[in-house]
Structure formats: C-alpha cells, structure tokens
Design brief:
Structural class: mainly beta
CATH topology: Immunoglobulin-like
Largest sheet: 4 strands, antiparallel
Number of helices: 1
Number of strands: 7
C-alpha cells in the first residue's frame, strides 16, 4: 500500500517521541534546572508572530519580565536575531524544595529567516507591557515591482 507523508504531522510526531525519550532521563526536572525554560529548548523563547505587508515585516515577540536594556536585536540581510537575558526569580527557596519550576531565567538567543531582505538602517523596536514589537522596512530590491505591459 502506498503511503503519502504529511511532513508536518510526521515531524511533530517524531518531536513528541524524542521529547518523551528525554523525559525518561529527567528526575522531576532537577537535572535540567539550570537550563533556561526547563523542558524546552532556549530557541523557543521568546514566542513570536511574524507578518508582512507590501513594504514592511512586522515581528511581535512575547517576552514578559525583560529589562529592555538587555535586549539585543541584530539584522543582517534577511536574518533577524533577538537576544537578551531574562532575570531569574529572587527567592529564598532552595532548588530541591521546588515541586514545579517553570519560570526560569537566563540568556536566550533566537534567529529567524525573514521572508525578504530589510533596510537595516530603518529598523525600529519598541518594548511595552512584555511585548517586543519590531518593524523592519523591506529593502527596495525586495519590494515587488509593478511592470506595465505595452499594448502593441
């Protein structure tokens, strides 16, 4: 029987299987407590939405609790990198006393391939209420050109 692959579904299934395999090595999260966002890869933070219109690429990153001075944004051609550091919780509770620890802190770096080259001189970023908004104007060479057709 011929089977057609649903690539996205197959990769999601593979990822779940791999996550379950690594869960077997974790003992209540204690082995990975020093990692940023235990149980998740650092590349999954911050969560983002990327959209575009004819002239601009818009990025919204959900990143609560950051010090805006720690955020570093780098753009090179069509690559956007967001880096920073989320402060850890100041607490007198010892690590072995936690029953659950999901609000970890630490450094993060996330790189995205944008759908078009951008004009890096005009990139703007704003951090408000835990949301980092980045506006990336497209480079002139990346904008669609309208070509008029001559009628003969």
């Amino acid at each position: 029987m011929l089977r057609f692959f649903d690539t996205n579904q197959d990769f999601q299934s593979l990822r779940r299987d791999i996550d379950r395999a690594f869960d077997a090595f974790r003992t209540n999260g204690a082995a990975f407590r020093q990692a940023f966002l235990p149980g998740r890869s650092p590349r999954n933070y911050p969560h983002v939405n990327i959209a575009e219109d004819a002239d601009t690429i818009h990025v919204e990153a959900l990143a609560p609790g950051l010090n805006p001075d720690s955020i570093q944004i780098t753009v090179l051609r069509n690559q956007l990198t967001i880096a920073g550091e989320k402060p850890g919780e100041a607490s007198d509770v010892k690590a072995e006393q936690f029953h659950r620890c999901e609000r970890a802190g630490g450094r993060f770096v996330r790189t995205f391939t944008l759908p078009a080259e951008v004009n890096d001189a005009k990139v703007a970023a704003e951090y408000r209420s835990g949301i980092l908004t980045i506006t990336l104007p497209k480079a002139e060479t990346a904008k669609p050109k309208k070509i008029n057709v001559a009628v003969a």
